[in-house]
Amino acid sequence: MRIFAIARRVTLELVRDKRTLALMFIAPLLVLTLMNYVFSVNDSTTARVATVNVSQPLKKSLQTTKHIDVEKFASTKAADKALHDDKVDTIIHEKNGDLYVTNANVDAGKTNLAKAALQGAISKNGVDTLKEHITDLSAKLATLTAQMPGAKANLAPATQAQASKIYTKYVYGDANTTFFAKIIPILMGFFVFFFVFLISGMALLRERTSGTLDRLLATPVRRADIVLGYMIAYGILAILQTLLIVIYTVWILKVEVLGSLGLVLLVNIVLALVALAFGILMSTFARSEFQMMQFIPLIIVPQVFFSGMIPLDTMASWVQWVAAILPMKYAGDALTNIVMRGVNFGQILPDLLVLILFLIILTLINIVGLRRYRKV
């Protein structure tokens, strides 16, 4: 009977805890739905190819290839600028019958798609050229036979197609670069965000449940002093953690960084401070460590899906609007551009300003939110 009494008490507590019930029954469905939508809309990735002085037959063959967008450029300088600005993924430049291919290689999938499309276009052109030669020879043979019955013709094609040589280079990585290279800059930022969010949220929650925060609020100390004090203390810890993650990623995992390592550190440190403010805010809605953990599938998981790890341009417009209100989207864009495209400070400044705006807004909300715990 005692066993059933304990089971009854625990069951009643669970039934009264609506947040736990929602976590168990609703959150998994939301995450699965989100995953199903995100991964199902990205099975038709398109590679953007820039052509410079490419022959019309080859260009036409590329244009008829599925999931390949072809744009013609007048010069290699203009095409290189488009590649640097992430407007194209691959440049194909034809010179003296040879092909010079430059791949941004930010997304290994798009690079492989462009490679396959080029090989397919070359093969198709070879077959078409051979058919034209056969048709031309047949017509000449028929003409000679009509003019000289019984004569044996020994004809060779007037022109003989020569296979084009392909010279390939990569802006980032090499031919062995995998999909992991694309997501590693984003994962670097994500782990910074995740652990700082969790640790800061748990810390303030412990201060609240132990009564330390109540005693502190009973003093003349201002709410802004408390919030900023916590952010400075845990901010130092977050910066040290960020340094460790970045150094390990670059020097131990051997991740190539085209841009400035200082910019990588700067973006991750600002992101860590945003995560710190976010964690403090979420802790005000939790009554226990378990409830703090409940925010992970609702706050952390969407950050992964909308961080740029999966291309957002293939998703619906409303999904892109959701991504626009999540800090990891801007951090992911900035880190990817620094690591894989080598951009400078001015080019990541818009993303940094948005992250700083997140930090300011969340800090102000935290200061105002402490009012509910001040009893005097």
From TrEMBL:
Annotated keywords: Cell membrane, Membrane, Transmembrane, Transmembrane helix, Transport
Gene Ontology molecular functions: ABC-type transporter activity
PROSITE patterns: ABC_TM2 (PS51012)
Keyword Zinc-finger: no
Residues annotated as domain ABC transmembrane type-2: 148-373
GO cellular component terms, semicolon-separated: plasma membrane
Transmembrane residue ranges: 21-39, 183-205, 226-251, 257-281, 293-312, 352-370
Pfam families: ABC2_membrane_3
Localization: Cell membrane
InterPro entries given in the database record: ABC-2_transporter_component, ABC2_TM, ABC2_TM_bact-type
Signal peptide (UniProt feature, chain positions): none
Family membership noted in the UniProt record: Belongs to the ABC-2 integral membrane protein family.
Official protein name in the record: ABC transporter permease
